[in-house]
Amino acid sequence: MQNHLLAALPEKITERLFPHLELILMPLGDVIYESGGLLQHFYFPTTSIVSLHYLMENGASAEIAGVGNEGVLGVSLFMGGDSTPSLATVQTAGYSYRLKKRILMEEFNRTGGRRCGVLHNLMLRYTQALMTQISQTAVCNRHHSIEQQLCRWLLLTLDRLPSHDLTMTQELIAGMLGVRREGITEAAGKLQRNGLISYRRGHITVLDRAGLEANTCECYAVVKQEFRRLLHEAKKL
């Protein structure tokens, strides 16, 4: 029940799905699926966070969205496709529930009765929230400063974790945001001097969350509000 989507499902659906859920370890850096590869499972993260990247022909990439305990990996399966152009890698190590594609699709495609509509509507609402995150990330990367982007990224990551500590190198964050490492070093240094974060190699501790929220752009609030609306509407299903 640590995954918010699974927790939002009614009891009749969970009784059918939960026996098929497999709790798996998601090590840092693991590739969950390759760009263009066939998807065989859905993943419902609990304590792990997965980063979705778009991979360019020259090997460069940037994060287009993150998925943690608020969501699911594999939306292209119930949207009509068996593959996706994005690359999914584990950004924060932890656990996730894995579910075979066939099991969820059988439930998703059930006809008649309210039990069909609940899962169908919940997954489509999540997809809309995910699309909002992807769109807002694109706008943020184009129009906002590296410091604002870093604040947004830190806050969205914190929302998916139980603590204020992040295991993450500046090089990895730079790869997520698609910027030079020097830009992240400068932005992180400024946040540290202002007392908002504490940074030592491979480890970031957020000291002043309110300060981060004051320094970020509107993109964080837009994404957070959309996921909050998703969960609020899910309770009505």
Distance between the termini: 17 Å
In the CATH hierarchy, what is the architecture of the largest domain at level 2? Sandwich
Average pLDDT for all residues: 88
Shape: globular
| Rounded Rg | 18 Å
CATH class category of the largest domain: Mainly Beta
**Percentage of helical residues?**
40-55%
Secondary-structure element sequence? Answer: HHEEEEEHEEHHHEHHEEHH
Biggest sheet: strands side by side, in what order?
2-6-4-5
Percent strand:
15-25%
Number of helix segments?
Answer: 10
Structural class: alpha+beta
Largest sheet: 4 strands, antiparallel
Flag low-confidence runs: 111-116
In short:
Residues 144-210 form the HTH crp-type domain. This protein is α+β, with helices and mostly antiparallel strands.
What layout of secondary structure does this protein have?
Layout: H1 4-7, H2 11-17, E1 22-26, E2 31-33, E3 41-45, E4 49-55, E5 61-67, H3 75-78, E6 86-92, E7 94-100, H4 101-108, H5 114-143, H6 146-158, E8 165-166, H7 170-177, H8 181-193, E9 197-200, E10 203-206, H9 209-215, H10 218-234
Antiparallel strand pairs: 1-7, 2-6, 3-7, 4-5, 4-6, 8-10, 9-10
Helix pairs in contact: 5-10, 6-9, 7-8
Summarize the structure in words:
- This protein has 237 residues and is α+β, with helices and mostly antiparallel strands.
- The protein folds into two domains: 4-114, Sandwich (Jelly Rolls); 145-216, Orthogonal Bundle (Arc Repressor Mutant, subunit A).
- Helices cover 47% and strands 22% of the residues.
- It has helices at residues 4-7, 11-17, 75-78, 101-108, 114-143, 146-158, 170-177, 181-193, 209-215, 218-234; strands at 22-26, 31-33, 41-45, 49-55, 61-67, 86-92, 94-100, 165-166, 197-200, 203-206.
- The strands form three sheets. Strands 2-6-4-5 form a four-stranded antiparallel sheet. A three-stranded antiparallel sheet has the order 1-7-3. It has a three-stranded antiparallel sheet with strand order 8-10-9.
- Strand 4 and strand 5 (61-67) form a beta hairpin.
- Helix 7 (170-177) packs across helix 8 (181-193).
- The protein is globular, with a radius of gyration of 18 Å.
- Residues 111-116 have low confidence and may be disordered.
- This is Transcriptional regulator, Crp/Fnr family.
- Residues 144-210 form the HTH crp-type domain.
